[in-house]
Design goal:
The structure holds two protein chains of two kinds. Chain A is mainly α. Helices cover 73% and strands 0% of the residues of chain A. Chain B starts with a strand and ends with a helix. In chain B, a hairpin with a 2-residue loop joins strand 4 and strand 5. In chain B, strands 1, 2, 3, 4, 5, 6, 7 and 8 form an eight-stranded mixed β-sheet that branches. Chain B contains five helices and eight strands; from the N terminus they run E-E-H-E-E-E-H-E-H-E-H-E-H. The chains are: A mainly alpha, B alpha/beta. Chains A and B meet through helix 1, helix 3 and helix 8 of A and strand 2, helix 1, strand 4, helix 2 and helix 5 of B. The structure holds guanosine-5'-triphosphate (GTP) and magnesium ion. The site of magnesium ion (MG) has 4 residues of chain B, from helix 1.
Chain lengths: 219, 201
């Protein structure tokens, strides 16, 4: 490639980066820093969109539909950053979404019902900002206990872990560089060592709680 | 060396955030992720100990888009800064295209910055790479602490300690507030462009 292409690549990458990461100067002012009316409007719009996404996933579980749903929920999470109860419900929906994404049509038949139920709870809370806190808590408790029952009964342990962690394994369809592959291979071995290490330190910590006088200083 | 796959027409640019433990490497990636995940649409993968220390590495990939017929993807990694994780650090450096050295501005860690930079030099040498030649950006992090009356290393001291010979582009930053976090990232990616370009044939 000649010098002209050289400039094109550099300039083009620069342009894309600017687009992707614009408004860097508003550092600190994330979604939470927006004026409240705009946040509320955004929240409402997102909530509508999430509802539509859930319906489309309910209709057919495709990768695109479920990915869109998870992305929208992630955006909603930012808008609702100050509402702890809403956040928990959204996180539950994301976990469910990730589970369904992994299992696809093999997902438990109840998954979509649980998802719709959690969403209904979320909708109730977001639609009535002046709902008293204990009413909100009640909604949350109902949904959480349903979610937990579902989780312990139907989600196999492995999928539960996967559903929680935004891990590389979800993305195996995408090409992985040799470097990353090597890293992942080495991970298992190193994990063993580090986990042993972590356990040892945890044990030490616990021991030092029990016997506060066996401090490091006296050795 | 950037990973170029001529068959699938993909380019992967690997950036590693290096530096002393608790210097703010992970916080850099978290800021980018928290602020822009709705746009970059990828996940941040982090493995931490119970004390919030990086265990292996953090990993944040994102697509820049199709350019000259290639899908360009950037991968941001952090290394674990704690001294004992040197083998992991070395591993993460494999195939690196550009390094951000995140130094800690707090006066108490002056020596740790220097030792970490020395460690970077050694680990790069093991891959036959020179710290003088590899694209490198110096980030002097936690500058926000100056306002809190915490004893700090001035940028001049940091330049003298870390950058007198390297003469890499440098900037103060606060990974916590986001000051210069994006600027650092853009700078290091742009610095890798000539090498990446050299590989696209
Ligand atoms: N005040 C302030 N604190 C920061 C800044 N950047 C990071 N921190 C804090 O410093 C601590 C360590 O930050 P990390 O990002 O975990 O550091 P790290 O370099 O990834 O550490 P290791 O993973 O152990 O190598 C955390 O408590 C951060 O919140 C900053 O710019 N300003
Ligand atoms: Mg870290």
């Amino acid at each position: 490639m000649d010098a002209k292409d050289d400039q094109t690549l550099s300039a083009e990458v620069g342009k894309r980066l600017d687009m992707l990461f614009e408004d860097e100067d508003t550092s600190g002012a994330g979604a939470a820093g927006q004026p409240p009316d705009r946040t509320a409007a955004t929240g409402k719009r997102l909530l509508e969109a999430v509802k539509a996404d859930i319906l489309s996933v309910d209709w057919e579980i495709t990768d695109a539909a479920i990915t869109a749903l998870i992305e929208r929920l992630t955006a909603l999470k930012q808008v609702c950053a100050s509402d702890k109860i809403a956040l928990i419900l959204i996180q539950m929906l994301i976990s469910l979404g990730r589970y369904i994404k992994v299992r696809k049509s093999k997902a438990h038949v109840q998954s979509m019902n649980i998802m719709k139920s959690v969403f209904a709870g979320l909708e109730k809370i977001l639609a009535q900002p002046d709902l008293p806190q204990d009413a909100k808590m009640k909604i949350l408790r109902v949904q959480v206990s349903r979610f937990h029952d579902f989780q312990t009964q139907v989600m196999p342990a492995a999928a539960r872990r996967r559903a929680k962690a935004p891990a590389v394994v979800q993305r195996t369809a995408e090409p992985v560089s040799p470097e990353l592959q090597l890293l992942l291979q080495n991970l298992a071995e190193e994990l063993k060592v580090v986990i042993r290490d972590e356990f040892r330190r945890l044990k030490e910590e616990i021991r030092s709680w029990r016997n506060p006088h066996d401090g490091y200083a006296t050795g | 060396m950037a990973f170029v796959n001529p068959k699938t027409r993909e380019v992967q640019i690997k950036i590693v955030y290096y530096g002393p433990g608790r210097g703010g490497k992970t916080t850099n990636l978290e800021y980018i992720y928290n602020k822009f995940n709705h746009r970059i649409k990828t996940d941040l993968v982090s493995l931490k100990t119970h004390g919030d220390r990086t265990l292996f590495f953090d990993f944040l990939p994102f697509d820049v888009g199709k350019i000259l017929g290639y899908d360009v993807r950037v991968q941001l990694y952090t290394v674990p800064g704690q001294v004992k994780y040197d083998s992991t650090r070395k591993l993460v450096l494999r195939g690196v295209d550009g390094v951000v050295f995140v130094a800690d501005c707090m006066a108490v860690v002056r020596r740790k910055n220097i030792l970490s930079l020395k460690n970077l030099y050694e680990n790069l040498s093991d891959y036959n790479k020179s710290i003088f030649k590899i694209p490198l950006v110096m980030q002097y992090n936690k500058i926000d602490l100056a306002e809190k009356g915490i004893p700090m290393l001035s940028p001049q001291i940091l330049e003298k300690d870390l950058n007198a010979q390297l003469k890499a582009p440098s900037m103060v930053a606060s990974a916590l507030t986001g000051l210069n976090v994006i600027k650092t990232m853009k700078k290091i990616i742009m610095l890798t462009m000539p090498t990446v370009q050299g590989q696209l044939k």
